[in-house]
Amino acid sequence: MTDALFTPLALGPLQLRHRVVMAPLTRMRASPDGNVPTALNARYYAQRASPGGLLIAEATPVSWQGHGHPAVPGIHTDAQQAGWKLVTDAVHARGGFIYL
Asked: Using an 8 Å Cβ cutoff, are 72 and 38 in contact?
């Protein structure tokens, strides 16, 4: 039965190499000034990326009013979007997929 975990899976436009998917977690590692994802966020997700694997990133506020915890990276400012690009680039460099 565990063999199924390591078989490929077509998921929409993605071709996953295995079915082990990282669920969303709230890491609270963004910068304290603007809740911008940093190199620490990029390293965290890159460490968990695998070729053809899927990571679902943390719950991410889409406005200042949506922030419920400190240091959770948002995606509603230019700086936050640039920070997430660091994260996605790091995951893609390892051959993985990531969705927010």
From this structure: no
**How many Å apart are CA 86 and CA 22, to the nearest integer?**
19
Residue 76's SS3 state is coil
pLDDT at 91: 98
Cα–Cα distance list, 77 to 4, 49, 86 (Å): 40, 25, 15
- The torsion angles phi and psi of 24, rounded to 5 degrees, stand at -65, 140
| Model confidence, pTM | 0.92
Are 56 and 88 in contact, with CB atoms under 8 Å apart? no
Do residues 30 and 73 make contact, with C-beta atoms less than 8 angstroms apart?
yes
